[in-house]
Amino acid sequence: MKTYFIKSMSLVGAVLLLLNCTGDKPSVEKPDLESIKILPEVIFAVVDGEPLRFFIESRGVVEPIQQIPIIPRVSGFVIEHQIIAGREIKKGDLLLQLDASEWENSKAEAYNKYLKAKSVYDVEIRLREKDGIKGNGNEGYRITTGLADAELAYERAKLNLSYTKIYAPFSGIISTKEVISSGAYLSAGKELGALVNTSKMRVRFDVLESEITSLSSGMKVELTDPSGEEIEGQIVAISPIIDQKTKTGQAIVEVSNAAGNLKSGMTIEGRVFVKSTSGKVRMPRSALLERDGRTLVFKLHGDEVEWIYVTPVAMNNEWVIINHEEINPGDTLAVDKHFSISHQQQVIPFMAN
Predict the structure, then answer these.
(1) Residues 289 and 228 in one domain
(2) What is the pLDDT of residues 102-113, one digit of tens each?
(3) What's the mean pLDDT in 187-212?
(4) Which conformational region is residue 280 in: left (phi greater than 0), alpha (psi within -120 to 50 degrees), or beta?
(5) The model's pTM
(6) For labelling, which of 54, 226, 337, 343 has a CA lying 20 to 30 Å from the CA of 193?
């Protein structure tokens, strides 16, 4: 018991000695959190006095003005062809030539039958004239002697022979997935590909029935392709029919495609300028806020904002026109991150790009 007491006293002494050696710890000042201001970051833009332009916007699909399928009307073996994907073709170029031997024989056979029928017909006419028969009944003899049928068969044979060659009716580019070899046999009616004229393209835009009356032929159209390239087209026709399901009509636009950037089937954006409205100030629509059923904006003064109630004169998807004595071109208005700020609040302003 005595030994335990001595050990306990020794331990207490060691602890006291350690505390004395350590000394007092320096006091650390805690910050006054209530004195720190946390200012919101707000995006601003400078307003101007430009007019507000109104556009009708839509999306359409590109299609060629000229496109024909390449389809042989008769069967035969390929002698030569230019039906190769991407091949540029000039008007009048030979696209496909089939072996014409069979069709030349058919033409010769049809011609011989025609001559035979013509001979029989001539004999009948001479006998008719010898018997003194007059009148306009020769057409009947053309039928009974077989001359009429022989003439038709001969004309058909000549056409079939001409079909062994297909020529390009206009300049363009070949589109095909077929691989055609010389000597291959082609059946009549088989679609081999298409000849597409890409120098000028057409775009059909669906337009709401409430907007289509603002459009007319000759109006310029601003087009933007999927790569962001901007080009200009022109309305060439307005559809006279409104689709009852979609309540839209079509505006048909033509656009030059000399560079070949527009491809058939490509989706393209288009907009047509229809009118403009002027006012004192044009500002981004994102500057408008609604509170308690009224519209307002936040105007920047140094690092503080002032809210001002405004009444829009006109607006589109991007811009608003206002006429207010306290807002002028060159003023700076909040356009983003301003939903929760209040009147005469300090902010950290950033300018929009």
Answers:
(1) no
(2) 999 999 999 999
(3) 95
(4) alpha
(5) 0.67
(6) 226
